Amino acid sequence: MSTPKKVVLAYSGGLDTSIILKWMQTEYGGEVVTFTADLGQEDELEPARQKAELLGIKPENVYIENVREEFVRDFVFPMFRANTVYEGLYLLGTSIARPLISKHLVEIAAETGADAVAHGATGKGNDQVRFELSTYALNPALKVIAPWREWDLTSRTKLLAFAKKHQIPITKDKRGEAPFSVDANLLHTSSEGKVLEDPAIAAPDYVYQRTVHPENAPDTPEFIEIGFERGDAVSINGMVLSPATILTTLNEYGSKHGVGRLDLVEGRFVGMKSRGVYETPGGTILLEAHRGIESITLDRGAMHLKDELMPRYAELIYNGFWFSPEREMLQAAIDKSQKYVSGTVRVKLYKGCASTVGRWSENSLYSEAHVTFEDDAGAYDQKDAAGFIQLNALRLKLIAARNQRTR
Predict the structure, then answer these.
(1) Rounded to whole angstroms, what are the CA distances from 322 to 232, 275, 333, 334?
(2) Could you identify which of 172, 185, 345, 392 might form a hypothetical disulfide with 39, taking C-beta atoms 3.0 to 4.6 angstroms apart as the criterion?
(3) Among 43, 73, 156, 181, which one carries the catalytic annotation?
(4) 189-360 sits in which CATH class?
(5) Does 300 participate in catalysis according to the annotation?
(6) Which CATH class is domain 6-85+96-181?
């Protein structure tokens, strides 16, 4: 690969990407542009700008963009229409942010005339795949630089030594140590490494940053009502809000009640198992509420087909194929299913749990006349069930008769 003349770096301002910034300056010598996405990670973004300029980046080459609304509207909400979870548990908070960041890297590269982009993902993880597949899907002419696959800084100790040598400020955690790996955005916070590397040992309380411990949550439950239109949340307690504000508000409710904690060992796309601690308070409430409104507005056949498609859809997102034709095909089917998924869901929040306790919709398929245990006034003829059962039992009877003859 020829030496790039200008590189757009996905820059968080943290230890790894600050070291990468300095490393690229010394290794490649070309111009570096930094891009920091404001995804609602709750960190001050100005320090990232200051650190980039401290490390020699021209002010006009420091890009910091608020992409919260785009993130929730165009990435999180479409994913939640499918009730997406990876390996039955993970709400894909990191996975879904990577294609958005990649999209902006490609756009900034076009704007600034850069011929390469760079990321801080390690050669052991999934993010390298997500960044690079997204980049190539959007602009195959761009080069991608992945320093973790090139340099000899193969341990946290070596990274800290490099930072000290080049006078790169190192953020300390509450215990005065270089922090474990944390990724945060409006959907979730994930933590990996250090004290979490042994899956047999419970995560210390200080790892959790976004939620109170469920045991310390309020002793009184709280009820909220979430309004939906065509599968997307549009209001909370009757107040219409923007997508990012919806998720921000649900995060506040979930954080208060200890909702959305997950300690998971997952199967990475590259083949190894990894242990992570995830906090997805608002997303956990949103998933529960979305399933609640679907339960009365979505036909059984459509719902069951969606549930069959969901693991494949989740795997595509987890593995980095957001910008693939198969994901877009599945998205079209999922979005079609949401035409009548509108209404309101009442959710109970209590001690780490989010539970649907009520749901109503003008598009409801629920018929009390058909399911009542009281007199249904002729809405349903129970005698019809006999023929239905006999037709479905026919093949089972034939199999049983065959088996009895051949014993």
Answers:
(1) 19, 23, 15, 14
(2) 185
(3) 181
(4) alpha beta
(5) no
(6) alpha beta
